[in-house]
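hey so i finally got around to running the thing on that chain from the lab meeting. sorry it took forever, my laptop kept dying and i had to restart like 3 times. anyway pasting the input first so we r on the same page abt which one it is
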Amino acid sequence: MKIKSQKDFFSGLMFLVVGAVFAIGATKYNVGNAARMGPGYFPLLLGILLAVLGAGIVFYSMVHNPAHGVDGDKVGSWAWKPIMFVLGANVLFGMALGGLPSIGLPVLGLVVGIFVLVAVGGLADKSNPPKAMFRGFFIAIPITALGLVVAKQFPKLQALLGDLPFLVVCVLLTALVLYGFLSFLLPLIFTKLAGNPTFKKVMLGVAVLAFAYGLYNISMSTDLKAFATGLGFLAEMEFKIVLAIALIVLTPKIVHNFGFKDENAIQLALLISTMCFLSVWAFIDGLRLQIPMWPTFITG
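ok and heres what got predicted. didnt touch it at all, straight out
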């Protein structure tokens, strides 16, 4: 078969090779299973998905497509400067994450590493002015700190409120997340539902039924403490989702009220905060990986 698009072929080949290498490397760690994931589970799954995606792109590059043109979609000249910024960003992220004792660099942690990653990687895009990036950092710092600190307080609610009120909060969170998820997903699949007032009422009814069903289970439970412990794990994840969405939605409105109009900086701040939330909650809180979150001179 003839290569119809060099860009698709080489990008797909890159995804295929990188995914295969990550998947093979992940097998050296304890993989576990979906119910009890080990440190190798996520990189193995991600590597396989990346390799499959790359194989699909390679196949697509060899199929005739009018968008490729008569002579095919050829690879242009190498953009060395952006490449160096992207590679340098990843190297500096690794140095920030693990430190570099040979030059006296302490462990800076995952959060600082993400800030460094975005700062250096963002220089690869000429449309990102340095001033916008600098402003975005100042917005991202309080958002990220607030989200991570507040999220840590949720497990303390059970001792603070008691088992029964805590269970009611958990059930309410589940109904809220269910309502938001279905209200967002279904209109994407069935476009006629978008903006339909009847659909909104149905989704609200589903949320109310879910809340009522949860309250029924609470009333039938013979061991509220054990029930709260089991439901608390799910509710904590739901709380983090709601918290992240609330911060992402409210941040632009709040900064606009203070007269801040730099949209590039706002988008950069939301990107950094989202990356921090996902990384900390997935890898540190979810998979329980021993990754430092904050600099060692703060945590000791």
